[in-house]
Amino acid sequence: MEKLGVIGGMGPEATSYFYDEVVRHTEASCDQEHLNMVILSCASMPDRTRAIETGEHTELLAEMRAATSALESLGCARIAIPCNTSHYFYSEVQAMTRVPIIHMPREAARYAAAGAVAGERGFDPAQSAGLFERPIKKIGIMGTDGTVRSGVYARSCAEAGVEAVVPSPERQRDVMSLIYDDVKAGREPHFYLFERVLEELTEAGCDRVILACTELSVLKRYREMPPLILDAMDALVRESIVRCGATYRA
Questions:
Q1: Taking phi first (over 0 means left), then psi (-120 to 50 degrees means alpha), and beta for anything else, what does residue 124 get?
Q2: Is 213 exposed, middle or buried (0-12, 13-18, 19+ CB in 10 A)?
Q3: CB within 8 A of 154, min separation 6: which ones?
Q4: What is the DSSP letter of 161?
Q5: Closest CA to 210 of 25, 84, 124
Q6: Model's pTM, two decimal places?
Q7: Cβ(26)–Cβ(244) under 8 Å?
Q8: d(CA 8, CA 83)
Q9: What is the pLDDT along the chain (250 residues), one digit of tens a residue?
């Protein structure tokens, strides 16, 4: 098996959740059958949404360069970044290192478009065929302002042959409140915010909804998500395990 490098800390709780999920979903009967991992918790990384909105990328990219260099020097064969918004800078960061970086939004869109689901099917699109009553054409995106405005999911969904739908400005404020006022602040989520965003996206004709922020992944610690939801973090977890040569356990 190959060593996985993780550029984390964006935010810390989401990185902790990612690690827990990799361990939980790796088929292993002893320590030695788990992945070797190097996790850099880069909590001082500049806010990604602010960097996108202001165009001030220099400090953020310098931090990313230091992180990728460290992971490469430590022998990591794959890199995962459990932060959706940071993938706005994917091309620049990938150019900094020879180590392949897993593109979380692209994988999440691919799984969602194929109708893949979590649980016993383990995100296998071939096994998931026919789970939904109609072809998947529209996918709702719940992410930060930076993720939404960057178009990273719009492009990833277009590549997968589906349309990305984002919340209205009012509901987008609800998403940001969940992320920044609740999860990042260490508070229990206000699920009425989540529910009215989901209701709006469903009424807009979305066949699936992607949790496109790793802080939103943490909501699953409090409540089971409906089948409509696909968590981008789950796609990253599976790809990290499989690409490093381990077996994914549903």
A1: beta
A2: buried
A3: 141, 164
A4: T
A5: 84
A6: 0.90
A7: no
A8: 8
A9: 999 999 999 989 999 999 999 999 999 999 999 999 999 999 999 999 999 999 999 999 999 999 999 999 999 999 999 999 999 999 999 999 999 999 999 999 999 998 765 443 445 544 444 444 567 999 999 999 999 999 999 999 999 999 999 999 999 999 999 999 999 999 999 999 999 999 999 999 999 999 999 999 989 989 999 989 999 999 999 999 999 999 999 8
Token duo for residue 142: 């719940």
What residues have CB less than 8 Å from 62, skipping those under 6 apart?
none
Residue 193 one-letter amino acid: L
Q: How many residues make up the chain in this entry?
A: 250
CB 206 within 8 A of CB 139: yes
Tokens of 30: 């002893």
Cis preceding linkage at 11, omega within 30: yes
Q: Write down the H helix ranges in the chain.
A: 12-24, 48-54, 58-73, 90-94, 104-114, 125-128, 145-150, 152-159, 169-176, 191-203, 214-217, 232-243
